[in-house]
Amino acid sequence: MRSAFGLDGLLILLLCLFLLWREPALGQKIAGLDHARLMMMAFVLPILCILISEAIRSDFKIQNYDGPSRLLLAIPIFLAIFVRRVNYWKLFSTVLPLALVATWVYAGMDKLNAERFGTRLSTHYLDPILWGNFAVIHGFICLFSMRPDDSRARKCYLYAGLGIGAVMSLLSQSRGGWVAALAMFCFWLWIKRKTFKRHQVAWACLALVTLPVLLYFSVDIVHMRVNEAIQEYASWAAAKQMDTSTGLRLSMWKLSFQLFQLQPFVGYGDHGLLTALRDPRLYLFADPEAVKLLQNAGPHNELLAEMLRSGVFGLLSYAAKYLMPFYVFWKLYRRSGNNNPAALQGMCLIIGCMTGGLFIEMLSYKIVYTYYAITIAALMGSAMLIAAPVPANVAAS
């Protein structure tokens, strides 16, 4: 499946390049689109940041460009979606609930998953945390796709997608996904606040408060995982037990920030960090298990991982992956009179990835990075089309 997805991504890229090559008056159609230029800059920056930091360190590794290059190669995709006037957001939201069901069935049939992760729902080649994060993110994209003029059947269909994604996240036992769900729900309430009546606002706020409480007291998985996190944090804060799941994460985050302060401008790259972690002075204040886990699996935090890899240029790369696209989606949403479902879908995806990225590197797998790049690019092209459609006389040329 992973290799097939990579092949699909390549075919999509080649198709978009062919369509752009055959497109008449391409320059005229994208001329004056400030948002297009800003997005192309965002897609180029991660590679540029790695190049600058490696040049300063004199440490060039071609494999470091593997993930960011997927953003660069996504530029033709969002341009093709825009100039060919593809209604991608509608197709995306229509397929998503069925895709969630198919993913759930596939995960349930994956016998290797039980051997590797036990009862946590996932696939054997993807971490349950990452799997659960994306399950709930796509569930909320269904919610963000809903429009007031949708038919009752379509609304029920999208609500079903939300429910399926939420249940999949619960079964994966991904606490990061649950935090992401709260963040996305709060953003949805805020973005829709002017369209709600007073009683609807009251019900929504009540649901925001009571639903987590009900889940905590009625769902054993939630109750157990939340209690574990609280107890593990208390043990870590009191320096009683440092090698729990939560304690190791907190220790790695603390250690990562201290390492960043030692070399803030260019970072360590992927191999320089191994040398830095061999310093015996680290063990005077850092838990040995946390040092070992940081060496083998990274800091389990996307922002800190970028900071360790490329220093301040890693911060710029992080902003290019998430903050710059979010800003463009927001501007397109406002330009469309707060009626741009493609922009809402894109902002939901980014909020989910940023929140989930507090607990794991969301784009650490090639298949995930490819999917994120393609989806953000396609949604950006669709959002630009809604906010600033290609003029009819130009589109017909």
Structure in words:
This protein is mainly α and 397 residues long. The protein has 20 helices and no strands.
Structure described in brief:
By secondary structure, the protein is mostly helical. The protein contains 20 helices and no strands.
Element layout with pairings:
Layout: H1 2-22, H2 26-30, H3 34-57, H4 66-72, H5 75-83, H6 88-109, H7 111-117, H8 128-144, H9 152-172, H10 175-191, H11 198-218, H12 220-237, H13 245-262, H14 272-276, H15 288-297, H16 302-310, H17 312-335, H18 341-356, H19 366-387, H20 392-395
Helix pairs in contact: 1-5, 1-19, 3-4, 3-17, 4-19, 5-19, 6-8, 6-9, 8-9, 8-10, 8-18, 10-11, 10-18, 11-12, 12-13, 13-15, 13-16, 16-17, 17-18, 17-19, 18-19
In N-to-C order, the SSE pattern is HHHHHHHHHHHHHHHHHHHH
Poorly predicted ranges: 1-5, 392-397
Distance between the termini: 40 Å
Which structural class do you get from the secondary structure elements? mainly alpha
Number of strands: 0
**Total of DSSP H or I helical runs spanning 4+ residues:** 20
The residue-averaged pLDDT reads 85
Estimated radius of gyration: 22 Å
C-alpha geometry: globular
Helicity range of the residues? Answer: over 70%
- How much of the polypeptide forms β-strand, as a percent range? under 5%
Main sheet characteristics: none
